[in-house]
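Structure in, sequence out. Go:
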């Protein structure tokens, strides 16, 4: 029991630091991604609010300054310990279950299974955090006027209070759970599978303990890219559902959102914000995995 708790504590510590590194590096990219995903479809003959990622960055900086790129970071920062504790601890315990014997290296397929299990667990905690983050990031893009229009939410706690009060209580915070599951389970399966495959490729075998920082950075960055490349449309659907108006919803569910996006914007609508997401995933996940591996190794 003591050994089990020690391993959990190590995964918690390393996962928390890795998650914080990921958040600091990647949040500005995430803000732009959500702004592009959530901007309304313009009427015929009119241009969209943002012409692309660079334009969204310019408008955000002009209206809100650099702090605008970190809008909504309070919610994920406050829960990064819990989210990464679940992700890395569940993954670690699934690795222990999947091993043929203690200390035996896992195959890539086993890492895929471990990643999927960790993704299922983390989706439950991630859903309310994602909802709060998306509401804060999207409110300026959804405003009828300029980016400086009056905002609905003053911060993460205000989002939670308003949702609990007027959107069905605690159930309202879990709006978008299904598409979040559809993102986290296959996404983490792909990410951890690719990460392990690349590590073994660089190491020339299953013993990856001697890999240097450069190899870990490359493996972590490409693994993060694999996450988004495999599940991005589900993230778009998650975002539009979570920011949808509660009293006058545009979408009745995930399938309805998929159909309406494809009908009005084509399949390209399912990839709005893909550039910033991929631009974020490589450096952010490289930072996350490098920090995790360094801390986990130092703890033994």
């Amino acid at each position: 029991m003591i050994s089990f708790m020690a391993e959990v504590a190590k995964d918690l510590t390393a996962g928390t630091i890795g998650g914080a590194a990921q958040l600091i590096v990647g949040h500005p990219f995430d803000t732009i991604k959500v702004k592009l995903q959530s901007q309304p479809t313009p009427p015929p003959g009119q241009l969209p609010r943002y012409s692309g990622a660079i334009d969204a960055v310019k408008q955000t900086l002009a209206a809100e300054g650099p702090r605008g790129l970190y809008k909504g970071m309070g919610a994920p920062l406050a829960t990064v310990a819990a989210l990464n504790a679940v992700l890395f601890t569940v993954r670690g315990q699934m690795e222990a279950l999947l091993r043929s014997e203690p200390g035996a290296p896992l195959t890539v397929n086993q890492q895929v299974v471990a990643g999927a299990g960790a993704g299922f667990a983390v989706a439950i905690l991630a859903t309310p955090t994602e909802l709060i983050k998306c509401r804060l990031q999207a409110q300026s893009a959804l405003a009828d006027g300029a980016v400086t229009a009056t905002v609905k939410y003053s911060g993460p706690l205000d989002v939670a209070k308003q949702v609990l009060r007027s959107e069905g209580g605690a159930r309202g915070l879990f709006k978008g759970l299904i598409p979040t599951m559809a993102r986290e389970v296959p996404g983490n399966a792909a990410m951890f599978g690719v990460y392990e495959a690349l590590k073994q490729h660089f190491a020339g075998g299953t013993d990856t303990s001697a890999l240097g920082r450069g190899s870990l950075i490359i493996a972590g960055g490409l693994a993060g890219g694999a996450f988004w490349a495999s599940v991005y449309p589900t993230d778009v659907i998650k975002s539009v559902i979570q920011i949808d108006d509660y009293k006058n919803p545009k979408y009745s569910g995930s399938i309805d959102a998929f159909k309406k996006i494809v009908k009005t914007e084509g399949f390209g609508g399912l990839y709005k914000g893909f550039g910033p997401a991929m631009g974020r995933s490589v450096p952010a996940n490289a930072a996350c995995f490098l920090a995790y591996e360094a801390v986990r190794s130092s703890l033994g």
